[in-house]
Amino acid sequence: MTKPAAREPQRRNSRSNRARILAVARSELGFSPDTTLEEIARAAGVVRRTVYGHFPGRQALLEALADEAAAALREAVRAFAATSAPDEPAERALARFVLTMWPVGDRYRMLIALARRDLGVERVTGILSPTRTTVRTILERGRAAGAFPSPVPAPALSAALECLTLSLLESVNTGAWKDDGRATAVATLIAAGVPAGQAEAEVLALVAQPGVMPAGRAADTEAGN
């Protein structure tokens, strides 16, 4: 009768080790996409056997990180949809979507450098599918209302804005871009055809609302420093 109780601390320890390994992997792979499992084990303060017990190879670890990223993006999309109002202006909806997604993208930005080489196009498409659908819907609504005067059709514009966001996330990896999501939201609106002054005003109005920006975000984030 005592065996189940004895096994529970082991399970908790195993879950804790797995979570720690994944957290360290996110950090280490962000510095170097070629980081090995052995290096991740040292950084996590566990023996190599512990890492291999959870992830039998590098690909298994990357797949686990991809699963985490996909789940986090789906949850962020659900949170965005839950707080959306039918009459919300499309430009504000797009800015709010960027602000909602940015923390997830920032957390898993190390996967961008690994995506094409180690995960494959189909896997990446599956991860990003919910965000692509949402952005395209916002753009189509905004174009119909005249909010996004860009001559680029909504599907192509959605793809271009995605590339912009991913490029900025990669620039965070290299230190060329520093952001809490605000500057990226402004840049996204401008790329969609919103005048710069209006884009900045929309983002400022959003971040002034309670709960839009997670606690602890720097108030004086500067791009490019």
Description:
Helix content is 73%, strand content 0%. It contains ten helices and no strands. It is elongated, with a radius of gyration of 20 Å. The protein starts with a helix and ends in an 18-residue tail after the last helix.
- The class by helix and strand makeup works out as mainly alpha
Shape: elongated
Strand content: under 5%
The sequence of SSEs as H and E is HHHHHHHHHH
Which assembly state applies to the chains in this document?
Answer: single chain
Helix content: over 70%
Give a quick account of the main beta sheet: strands, pairing sense, barrel closure: none
Total E-strand runs: 0
Count of DSSP-assigned helices: 10
What Rg is obtained from the alpha carbons, in whole angstroms? 20 Å
Arithmetic mean pLDDT? 88
| Straight-line N-to-C gap | 60 Å
Poorly predicted ranges = 215-225
How is the secondary structure organized here?
Elements: H1 3-31, H2 37-44, H3 48-54, H4 58-82, H5 90-107, H6 110-119, H7 121-145, H8 154-174, H9 182-191, H10 196-207
